[in-house]
């Protein structure tokens, strides 16, 4: 062809380009490749046969793609690449992005429960579904930006139930922790699951912080307890979880408190080196904050917090020593300021429930760790703080506080097997107050000292005050002397107390008070004579501490008169305390006996609670109210049972039958809902 003038000359193909397009040269290069890199050649054979059969295809294409001028035009073959999803899933099993149905939940549930290997895709899809359920309740408009969408409370319940019941065991199976039980981070497949697991735990904590119902909280806390092994793998999640759990531990209901503590304990143990310091500090500060007010209703919660804190501090006594030393020192500083600066503000910093409950906590901790040497050096400073707290304001108004401090000292002395001179603080009450003084007011009951530290001036004028003081003195003197009744020095320890009790009996003219203390005096003297008789048989020197301890243990195993008397008295006293708590005697005295008709008596027993099936995780509600996240306990109240009359008309009976039939039909229609299968008994 002739070139038109003025047009640029087209670039003619070079020899090298012709060689590259030549099938023979291409074939030779492929043969060389087979020799040089056989693995890559095999890969091409498996994945791209078109490239290897270049000569055949090129000839066919050349004939098919001839232009009008007879020149061959090369058209590239369309690229065929599989998507990422097809590597993992078949076309039939691809998840439908969008609305989640109950059938989908059932399918995922069977995948999680399969006896074979658990797939990573099934775990990730379940976690995505849980995230969609969370976005439904946390987002303002109730929509989710993720792959899936949860609509309706039944689907929401089904997704949550599936994750709570079946996800922990499926994760264990996937990581291979069922038999080995090793750290999840050391498992082979943990890296693949790390991202989805972190997202799931974040969502779970959000759900936990938004729930108010006790039943749902217990279920979620049990689930978190199972997942706490994985929580400990992420430091940020661990801190967030512990922050929420400590709040539940201090303010929740009884079962919620216990479950929250178990979760705290498990997470802390799994990451003890990093978390123990923070947890001990946070729990102690929360304990002090929540024991400011003491009443019969708050006592059980405060006692539980104290016992669980003792357990946390015993995890590592070397770490605990620094905390305990620091906190006892703070108490001592408050006490020193109150002694030096005689002002009401400084006294109030000591004479309050937070201070007393802190003393109680440290005494319990030192008593429980008495067989280990780490914390024993702190017994002496703690005892000095308690005794000087009693001496700060030794007036009649603060007798309840004195008795609380004495109780703490008695338990510490008993458990740690340490002698603490407690009798002077008790006998001092007998000599410092005039019990013959006539009362100005009459009270029906003695004043209860268990939940008070300070008495009002009006209470000091009542006869109930003196009765309560004598009762507490009798109980504490008997308990302390019974604990020390086996010691070789018992007659010498109780000598001054016996003298002061005898002086009180001479002065006091109230027969009820003298009767009690005379009985106590007789028991103490009887025990002293018993010890003196046993001591007369001793042949070893009193300086030989080993022989003295051996002798005391033998006397304790034999039993002493005072100890047997105390044990019998304690049994009766515990029964009386239980009666006081339940108020059985009070109720019997106040309520008159009324003969009720048989219908009203039998009615509650005949009416059976409606069997609504197993407990649902989240109460199903209408679609309009489905975006409400917080669940109130009021929704769970049982409807009042109406009084049923004996005689029914025929019309009423027919109506009742119709209602029951409609109820049965509704029940059958809801049979497909997975939520109905959930029950707390599954745990």
Automatic annotation (TrEMBL):
PANTHER family: NUCLEOLAR COMPLEX 2 AND RAD4-RELATED (PTHR12687), NUCLEOLAR COMPLEX PROTEIN 2 HOMOLOG (PTHR12687:SF4). This is Nucleolar complex protein 2 homolog. The keyword Nucleus applies. Pfam families: Noc2. Belongs to the NOC2 family. It is found in: Nucleus. Residues 23-32 have a biased composition (Basic and acidic residues). InterPro entries: ARM-type_fold (IPR016024), Noc2 (IPR005343). It comes from Loxostege sticticalis (Beet webworm moth). The lineage of its organism: Eukaryota, Metazoa, Ecdysozoa, Arthropoda, Hexapoda. Its main location: nucleus. Keywords: Nucleus. Residues 56-70, 82-92 have a biased composition (Acidic residues).
């Amino acid at each position: 062809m002739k070139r038109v003038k003025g047009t640029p000359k087209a670039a003619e193909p070079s020899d090298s380009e012709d060689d590259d397009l030549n099938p023979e040269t291409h074939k030779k290069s492929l043969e060389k490749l087979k020799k040089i890199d056989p693995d890559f050649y095999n890969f091409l054979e498996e994945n791209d046969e078109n490239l290897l059969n270049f000569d055949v295809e090129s000839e066919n294409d050349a004939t098919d793609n001839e232009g009008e001028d007879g020149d061959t035009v090369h058209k590239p073959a369309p690229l065929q690449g599989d998507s990422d999803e097809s590597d993992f899933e078949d076309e039939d099993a691809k998840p439908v992005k969008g609305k989640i149905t109950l059938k989908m939940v059932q399918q995922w549930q069977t995948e999680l429960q399969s006896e074979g290997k658990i797939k990573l895709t099934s775990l990730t899809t379940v976690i995505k579904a849980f995230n969609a359920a969370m976005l439904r309740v946390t987002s303002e408009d109730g929509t989710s930006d993720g792959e899936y969408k949860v609509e309706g409370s039944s689907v929401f319940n089904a997704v949550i139930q599936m994750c709570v019941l079946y996800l922990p065991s499926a994760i264990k199976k996937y990581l291979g922790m069922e038999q080995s039980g090793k750290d999840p981070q050391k498992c082979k497949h943990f890296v693949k699951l790390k991202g989805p697991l972190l997202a799931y735990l974040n969502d779970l904590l959000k759900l936990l912080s938004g729930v108010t119902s006790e039943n749902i909280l217990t279920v979620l806390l049990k689930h978190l307890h199972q997942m706490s092994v994985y929580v400990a793998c992420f430091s940020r999640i661990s801190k967030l979880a512990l922050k929420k759990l400590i709040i539940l531990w201090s303010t929740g209901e009884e079962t919620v408190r216990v479950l929250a503590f178990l979760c705290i304990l498990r997470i802390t143990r799994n990451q003890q080196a990093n978390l123990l310091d923070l947890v001990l500090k946070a729990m102690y500060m929360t304990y002090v904050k929540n024991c400011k007010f003491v009443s019969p209703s708050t006592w059980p919660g405060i006692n539980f917090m104290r016992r669980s804190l003792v357990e946390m501090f015993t995890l590592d006594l070397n770490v605990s020593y620094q905390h305990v030393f620091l906190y006892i020192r703070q108490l001592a500083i408050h006490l020193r300021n109150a002694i030096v600066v005689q002002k009401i503000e400084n006294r109030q910093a000591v004479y309050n429930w937070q201070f007393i409950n802190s003393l109680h906590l440290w005494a319990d901790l030192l008593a429980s760790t008495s067989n280990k040497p780490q914390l024993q050096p702190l017994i002496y400073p703690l005892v000095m703080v308690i005794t000087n707290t009693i001496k700060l304001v030794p007036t009649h108004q603060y007798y309840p506080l004195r008795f609380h401090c004495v109780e703490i000292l008695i338990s510490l002395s008993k458990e740690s097997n340490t002698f603490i001179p407690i009798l002077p603080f008790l006998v001092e009450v007998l000599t410092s107050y005039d019990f013959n003084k006539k009362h100005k007011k009459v009270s029906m009951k003695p004043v209860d000292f268990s939940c008070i530290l300070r008495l009002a001036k009006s209470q000091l004028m009542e006869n109930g005050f003196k009765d309560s003081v004598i009762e507490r003195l009798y109980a504490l003197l008997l308990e302390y002397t019974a604990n020390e009744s086996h010691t070789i020095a018992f007659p010498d320890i109780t000598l001054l107390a016996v003298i002061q009790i005898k002086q009180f009996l001479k002065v006091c003219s109230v027969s009820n008070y003298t009767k009690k203390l005379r009985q106590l005096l007789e028991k103490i003297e009887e025990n002293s004579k018993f010890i003196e008789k046993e001591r007369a048989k001793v042949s070893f020197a009193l300086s030989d501490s080993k022989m003295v301890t051996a002798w005391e243990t033998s006397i304790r195993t034999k039993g002493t008169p005072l100890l047997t008397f105390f044990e019998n008295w304690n049994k009766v006293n515990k029964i009386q305390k239980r009666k006081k708590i339940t108020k059985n005697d009070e109720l019997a005295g106040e309520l008159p006996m009324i003969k009720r008709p048989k219908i009203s008596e039998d009615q509650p027993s005949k009416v059976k609670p409606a069997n609504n099936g197993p407990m649902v995780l989240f109460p199903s509600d209408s679609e309009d109210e489905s975006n409400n996240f917080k669940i109130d306990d009021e929704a769970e109240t049982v409807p009042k049972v109406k009084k049923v009359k004996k005689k029914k008309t025929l019309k009423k009976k027919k109506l009742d039958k119709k209602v029951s039939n409609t109820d049965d039909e509704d029940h059958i229609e809801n049979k497909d809902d997975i939520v109905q299968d959930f029950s707390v008994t599954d745990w």
